[in-house]
Amino acid sequence: MRNLIKSAVDIGVYYVNLRSSTAQKREKGKTVEVGRAYFETDRKHFTILDAPGHKSFVPNMIGGTAQADLAVLVISARKGEFETGFDRGGQTREHAMLAKTAGVKHLVVLINKMDDPTVMWSEARYNECKDKILPYLKKLGFNAAKDLSFMPCSGQMGQNLKEPVGPEICTWWKGGAFIPFIDALPSLNRKMDGPFLMPVVEKFKDMGTVVMGKVESGEAKKGQSLVLMPNRTPVIVDQLWSDDEEVSSVGPGENIKVKLKGIEEDDVSPGFVLCDPNNPARTARVFDAQVCQGIH
């Protein structure tokens, strides 16, 4: 991340590299895995989960969305691109639906590429994109007054991301920039006093078994004994990383990596839950579910 920031020659390049946070994406031109990047303001620490947009990697996208408190749906205002993404079978519809079914409660729709020659910061084009997608988002269950926010931007030029777009570029937008907006959102009510609970979203082998996920409740410390459900495998926390920095303890809301003692990587699967042995996640053979059928 530091190398990416150092290599940025202006704010536009910084944001492009920030979104293209893995070498795999920068080389192939699309996200394959869930990329991670981080930034801080005076008030908050943010973890960016850059989920895949390509239809071949929807499972990866679901894994990233399930860890998010806030979803940012980036759509293109460029003539033809928005229509392709939003038409039946396009990825815009599917991603919005997956975000809602994954439990994301607030969605920010960034209408990107407003600087494109086919758009030129046109208010009419911005409203056209917004008016087309808004009824679909309402149909999914998003509350337009509480859950949805729309903003224009240019990712390439960094316009309306950190600083509001200037009146010499856009005379009609008065709503402020993206990062100050999310920085001002109210803090979430975290379960600090609850038992430790972390669903596993990824796992790999690196001098031991490492699992990744978002802490949903409670705290964990280095050396602590935990249990991996549903197999009830006892494990010990060997190392902890929060945002790629090694730490001695972690709390709710953090996206972390945990190196575990007492289990092999082949014995762990995404969907397992790392939890407090005195209050483990409940298991069941029968359950009620709401099933959402996607576009087919």
Your description of this structure?
It is a single chain. This protein has 296 residues and is of the alpha+beta class. It folds into 2 domains: 1-184, Rossmann fold; 197-275, Beta Barrel (Elongation Factor Tu (Ef-tu), domain 3). The protein is built from 8 helices and 15 strands. It has helices at residues 2-7, 11-19, 23-28, 58-65, 81-86, 91-101, 123-140, 178-183; strands at 35-40, 45-50, 70-76, 106-112, 148-152, 197-199, 202-205, 209-214, 220-221, 225-229, 233-242, 245-247, 249-250, 255-261, 273-275. Strands 6, 7, 8, 10, 11, 12, 14 and 15 form an 8-stranded antiparallel sheet that branches. A hairpin with a 4-residue loop joins β1 and β2 (45-50). α6 (91-101) packs across α7. The protein is elongated, with a radius of gyration of 20 Å. It starts with a helix and ends in a 21-residue tail after the last strand. GO terms for molecular function: GTP binding; GTPase activity. Residues 1-190 form the Tr-type G domain. Keywords: GTP-binding, Nucleotide-binding, Phosphoprotein.
Q: Briefly, what CATH class of the largest domain? A: Alpha Beta
Number of helices: 8
* Overall domain count: 2
Q: What is the rounded Rg?
A: 20 Å
Low-pLDDT stretches are 1-32
* Mass-distribution shape: elongated
Element order: H for helix, E for strand: HHHEEHEHHEHEHEEEEEEEEEE
Q: Please summarize the sheet with the most strands.
A: 8 strands, antiparallel
Strand content: 25-35%
Termini separation comes to 38 Å
Q: Which architecture of the largest domain per CATH?
A: 3-Layer(aba) Sandwich
